Amino acid sequence: MSKSQLRKQIEELTAKLNQADAAYYLHNDPIMADAQYDMLYRELQSLEMQYPEFALLDSPTMRISPKVNGALPTFNHRTPMLSLSNTYDLIELDEFLKRVHREIGYFPTFVVEPKIDGVAVSIHYQDGKLHQAVTRGDGAIGEDITHNIRTIRSLPLAIPESDRIEVRGEVYISRENFHHINLRRQEQGEPLYANPRNLAAGSLKLLDSLSASRRGLDIFCYALLGSEEKSHWQSLNQIKEWNLPVNNLNTKTNNVKEIHQVIKQIHEMRSRLPYDIDGLVIKVDHYDLQQLLGVTAKSPRYAVAYKYEALQVSTKLIEITLQVGRTGVITPVAELEPVLLAGSTISRATLHNFDEIIRKDLRPGDTVLIEKGGDVIPKVIKVIDSHSRQDALPVTLPKACPACDGHIEWTENGVHLYCINPGCPAKRKNAITHFVSRNAMDISGLGEKVIERFLQDGLLNDIGDLYHLDYDRISSMDGFGPKSAENLRSSVEKSRYNSLDRLIFALGIRHVGKKTAQILASNFNSLDQLVSATYEELIKIDEIGEITASSVYRSLRNPRMISIIEELRHAGVNFNQETKSSQQSNHLLDGKSVVFTGKLSRPRAEFEQLAQAAGARVLSAVSAKLDFLVAGSDAGSKLNKAHQLGVSIISEEEFSQLCSSE
Ligand SMILES: NC(=O)c1ccc[n+]([C@@H]2O[C@H](COP(=O)([O-])OP(=O)(O)OC[C@H]3O[C@@H](n4cnc5c(N)ncnc54)[C@H](O)[C@@H]3O)[C@@H](O)[C@H]2O)c1
Ligand SMILES: [Zn+2]
């Protein structure tokens, strides 16, 4: 590359990153994914290092973030609020540890903390009272957000310390709150927030603290300035004593192996934490040593952020196709330029419904932000660059089913389009695929391709045919042999003894997922009882809402469903609730409803299994009808609600005792 090309590249990178900074810090509306920002940033940093003569004065590598944007009063930080140098690479992390070791002369104690993905704030207490709270701003000057910080219920307004002290922490919004807020916005047709961080940043800057209080802001404090303590760890303990929220995963250690272990452990917990983290911060513990190592203009030299792989990434939208699901719902699917995200290659993402395409104004050619959350299927969050878009609308509303050309209809609320042709091949294929899937009847040897072939060859028409397949014909088919035909036969046979909840789930009733199927199964003794249940009986069940009740009621009266159920009955498929959780059991938890909340000593799924094995129903919401709330440490709103409603609250240990009792 020639010098003038290099100069141009530095200019372009600087401009692009400055634009990204403004979007991210001032408007809380990022135009690229963090991982991409970090990559471009490093590229610029290394070019600037090689060609310092081309580095621009307004380079993002020289500053923390753009100036504040002005609606709130400003405040000069006494100690600058710095950024952190970051790495995605364990080898680089080790280099940092080695450098520190070298400069200090021995391997010091470090504190490893989750890096909460929120917004940094500085909080001043004076005469024992919360006096003022300020955003980081550009690191030197921040904005006064005291009115909004006061809405954080976990943060005490008074502490038993009269000296003037400064606490720093990360304000965040829990995933649960974020999810609810976005759901409400979706219902109202408003644009969605990209992630909890952006929402927290926007909420902090609200002028009206009542609106801010509705967002449910929370905080983890991670630094204490102006105290007598000798080390960071001591400071953390001090603020914990004052009842300021401190993250309970923080760890003190003085060996490399343990640092690596903590990184691994917290990584495994990451998706189950109630808040977003984007990595860990590793800090030298002792203040004298911190001082010895010093700071640069942008970040301290005694700390580093180790970032986990991103869960969001940007890529190009190639086109939008239509897919017909097992219930006939026609969903638009984003076909993407393949991109690596959290260990797998993503080339498709769901778009849920047609409204969403319009709301997000998606067009082929756009660069979109996609996210892999708790669900397996990634989703499109938003358009982040529309420069090379094609003007054409990506899809027009279909007039007929894209799979069978049959009649389609809108649902009552006008959100989804459905193919209503009972013979639609796409519906049948997906219904069978769902029926045999692992969480449903768990029949192995019937992948999507095989089902397609069986449908084509007329071996299979619908779910009911699964129990009288022509195995002689199958064993003579291409790619099959007597062995695989026999395996298929035994897998089909075995599935006849499955539990009732599996069968209910397998029927593929709209709005009946695995959990709802379990709830239904535990409320009825048999499939026949469920089939004859009235709408009123269904709606009386905890956690079964109107939409689900009406879907169950109507689906089970659909002629195709009736004939499938009859075929399954003839095939001897189990329709009954197993005896273990029927009335004969005298287990203490039998038939009881349970909700888990707070931090438990083992993964929540394990406890849920225990509860179900004891005949209990696991719910997610607290209501007056709930029998037990099992509360772990740090339980919050659910615990309060249970208190108010007079629900029995038990500890993890008490729960385990109940489980083992008869
Ligand atoms: N997507 C974009 O367009 C875009 C634009 C600008 C910045 N960014 C992202 O932001 C990063 C730089 O932002 P930054 O300087 O605000 O933050 P940072 O990632 O460099 O880290 C510093 C911040 O970490 C936070 N933090 C959380 N937990 C902490 C703990 N336990 N101890 C200490 N600090 C803790 C604090 O807010 C602190 O200010 C970039 O690396 C990039 O990923 C993205
Ligand atoms: Zn169709």
What do you see in this structure?
With 662 residues, the protein is an alpha+beta fold. It has five domains: 3-62, Helix hairpin bin (Helix Hairpins, Orthogonal Bundle); 74-307, D-amino Acid Aminotransferase, Chain A, domain 1, CATH 3.30.470; 312-403, Nucleic acid-binding proteins (OB fold (Dihydrolipoamide Acetyltransferase, E2P), Beta Barrel), CATH 2.40.50.140; 425-579, 5' to 3' exonuclease, C-terminal subdomain (DNA polymerase, domain 1, Orthogonal Bundle), CATH 1.10.150.20; 586-660, BRCT domain (Rossmann fold), CATH 3.40.50. 37% of the residues lie in helices and 20% in strands. Helix 22 (604-613) links the parallel strand 19 and strand 20 (617-619). Helix 12 packs across helix 13. The longest helix has 24 residues, at 3-26. The protein is globular and about 80 Å long. It starts with a helix and ends with a helix. Bound molecules: nicotinamide-adenine-dinucleotide (NAD) and zinc ion. Nicotinamide-adenine-dinucleotide binds next to helix 1, helix 2 and strand 3. The site of nicotinamide-adenine-dinucleotide (NAD) has 23 residues, from helix 1, helix 2 and strand 3. GO terms for molecular function: DNA binding; DNA ligase (NAD+) activity; metal ion binding. NAD(+) binds at residues 34-38, 83-84, 113, 136, 170, 283, 307. Pfam families: BRCT, DNA_ligase_aden, HHH_2, HHH_5, OB_DNA_ligase. This is DNA ligase. Its EC number is 6.5.1.2.
